[in-house]
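Design a sequence for this backbone.
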């Protein structure tokens, strides 16, 4: 048998596979890996443990994590600690939803097709766009996929994205653009928002796409109208708005502003933080992009008995149809996350989602106002914000965050790690879950540590 009893293959099976590949040993198989990169000696694993012992050991490891059940969460940057109604967990656990994996066989996946159809409708209504797809992996890949889609439509080779967008989105987009031979240009910020003047300098006939995030990564609301006008002043130049979907019930819809494509992360729509994922990439768009989108469109029809039914109407990007000509070969329907977002939006409705937005905004402004009163807190801008804002101070941010955690508070994002030019400070998010007591404790702790 193999030296590693947890590997199921026998020595004979391993030799047979190596013979097919045409090498003599496992060392030969991995000969391309430099010797200094290879592990020396045995793996540091116990020889054997019972199932009960393994479960107990892993449970002990998991308890070392601190979650939002242990800390009052003021961290944001695209993932937020919103309240998730318990009904969502019950509905997503229904067998007609979670067992119907593929939407390609409508006769056995009506549950999946129905909630995708409902999700598309709700998301199109929320954003004010013609259509929405289902769906993408997360907000960052949604930015990249939308940028490539619009660049292909424009037949131009340059993409411009604001410096105030999510840094991870910029990094992912840079990878996509490099792989496709496209040029990525960063529009500099002016304070804590995008510089319109710099955007005007950058825009020429070679730019096919402009991307602006609002509310932006620092929490501030961008004035989208001038950027829409600027993009559309050039022939076949499109504008993408990356946004927080929870802001849309109380803000002007991107579709009303003339935005071409809307992207974002749907995590705030009833999806747990889950230590970083999986999440839900949003993509809503105007009709002209319908056959260029990554993802799929579900439509409503009737069966042979005249009953309402759902089918996969459009899957122009799917690799099983177009393969190398597919729009995208990495996007996948985040099934249960789409379902959770659909249930969340349906359950709260227009009134409930407005309440979440208003409460988050009111509480964020309360905390901001209280922090601004502290002598050693720097107000970095007076621009309007939604549920997230940025403050500065002279003390090392890691020391401040450590003190906040000691007091049961997950304090926010270290500003200097995002942009060293902005110095020490925090990007702070406030949702409807945060209480006055938690916010007051945040203020008192910060006052003490500063």
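Sequence:
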């Amino acid at each position: 048998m193999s030296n590693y009893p947890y590997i199921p293959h026998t020595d004979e099976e391993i030799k047979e596979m190596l013979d097919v590949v045409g090498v003599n040993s496992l060392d030969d198989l991995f000969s391309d890996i430099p010797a200094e990169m290879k592990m020396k000696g045995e793996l540091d694993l116990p020889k054997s443990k019972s199932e009960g012992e393994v479960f107990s050991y892993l449970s002990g490891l998991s308890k070392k994590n601190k979650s939002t059940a242990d800390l009052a969460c003021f961290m944001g940057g695209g993932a937020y600690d919103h309240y998730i109604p318990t009904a969502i967990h019950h509905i997503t656990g229904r067998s007609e939803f979670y067992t119907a994996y593929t939407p390609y066989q409508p006769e056995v996946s009506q549950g999946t097709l129905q909630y995708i159809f409902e999700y598309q409708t709700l998301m199109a209504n929320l954003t004010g766009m013609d259509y929405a797809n289902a769906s993408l992996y997360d907000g960052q890949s949604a930015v990249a996929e939308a940028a490539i889609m619009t660049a292909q439509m424009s037949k131009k080779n340059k993409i411009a994205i604001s410096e105030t967008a999510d840094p991870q989105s910029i990094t992912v987009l840079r990878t996509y653009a490099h792989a496709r031979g496209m040029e990525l240009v960063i529009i500099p910020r002016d304070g804590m928002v995008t510089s319109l003047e710099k955007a005007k300098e950058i825009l020429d006939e070679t730019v096919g796409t402009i991307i602006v995030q609002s509310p932006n990564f620092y929490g501030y609301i961008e004035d989208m109208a001038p950027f829409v006008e600027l993009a559309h002043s050039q022939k076949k130049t499109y504008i993408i708005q990356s946004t927080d979907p929870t802001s849309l019930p109380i803000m002007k819809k991107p579709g009303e502003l003339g935005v071409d494509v809307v992207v974002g992360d749907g995590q705030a729509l009833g999806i747990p933080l889950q230590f970083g994922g999986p999440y839900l990439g949003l993509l809503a768009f105007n009709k002209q992009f319908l056959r260029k989108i990554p993802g799929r469109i579900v439509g409503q029809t009737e069966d042979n008995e005249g009953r309402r039914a759902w089918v996969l109407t459009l899957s122009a990007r799917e690799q099983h149809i177009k393969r190398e000509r597919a729009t995208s070969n990495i996007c996948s329907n985040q099934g249960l996350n789409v379902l959770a977002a659909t249930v969340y939006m349906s359950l709260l409705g227009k009134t409930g989602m407005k309440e979440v937005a208003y409460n988050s905004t009111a509480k964020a402004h309360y905390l901001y106002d209280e922090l601004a009163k502290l002598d050693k807190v720097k107000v970095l801008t007076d621009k309007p914000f939604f549920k997230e804002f940025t403050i500065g101070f002279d003390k090392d941010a890691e020391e401040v965050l450590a003190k906040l955690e000691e007091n049961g508070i997950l304090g926010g994002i270290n500003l200097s790690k995002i942009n060293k030019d902005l110095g020490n400070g925090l990007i702070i998010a406030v949702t409807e879950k945060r209480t006055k007591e938690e916010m007051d404790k945040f203020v008192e702790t910060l006052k003490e540590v500063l």
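The mean pLDDT is 92.
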